[in-house]
Amino acid sequence: MSSDATLTQGGGKPVIGLALGSGSARGWAHIGVIQGLEEMGIEPEVVAGTSIGAIVGGAYVTGTLNEFADWVKGLTVKDVVGLLDISFSGGVVKGEKLFSFFREHHDNPDIEHLEKKLVTVATDMKSGREIWITKGPMLDAARASCALPGLFSPFSLQGRWMLDGGLVNPVPVSAARAMGADVVIAVNLNAQLVGGHLARDTRSQVESEEASEEERSIWQKMMDYFTSGDGEDPGFFDVVASSINIMQDRITRSRMAGDPPEVTLVPLLEDFALMDFHRAKEAIEEGRALVKRYEADIRGWVGSAVADRV
Which residue from 70, 150, 199, 244 has the highest number of Cβ atoms inside 10 Å of its Cβ? Predict the structure, then answer.
């Protein structure tokens, strides 16, 4: 570790940064990782988030992570379906209904006024450039980062259409460093192939739940869209989901090879499908367990930065 890499803020403590990666429903594991770090007495001061990482990172820097965790752990399949505004224009979900709910129940301050630093990563649809968002309302910054092709519609921000940041920087280590992090802890959700858009037990679960005729109609539209083929051959959108995951995995490997984080955490959530947002409790528990498994490595890096500074 070079001396430049160990410059710290006053008090001799290194600035801890989080790079929270894209990965749809698996991203609830980010909540458990942050909670696990806090239990160790480690308080990240810089957060760089892509896609679902931008949402969780936003909840953390605004001080509402625990309340947010309680909410997502209570989500059922029916709740998830109810928050989706089916569009089929640019993406199956517009996202307005979901983010309107966030605005009603969570703080939405401007990023530049936060005590902790937050940067979200999006992709400029026209130029393909990587965009780092460090100003403006937190929820707009998160929404711009979450426009996964085929799922969420693009989001217009400052006159430009934004796509999911995972297309260019799935685990934004570089952004965390640029924002002043001395030690970067990265959470990579793309190391395991996603199983599909909707797990089979998810389909059977919603079919067994009581629902109105309107809700069943919405669900049928989703079933038609997210179909997983005939059981032998993959369905069209299973191919799309796996293709995006493969692409993000390769981009992540390449970018992290050039700018590796000090610690890389990979949640073991192989059976999670893209839309399994109702399984938050499992993902959060895995995130917390992951921090415990890597506690020695995490403390080693944090400690080494302090020692080099002294």
Answer: 244
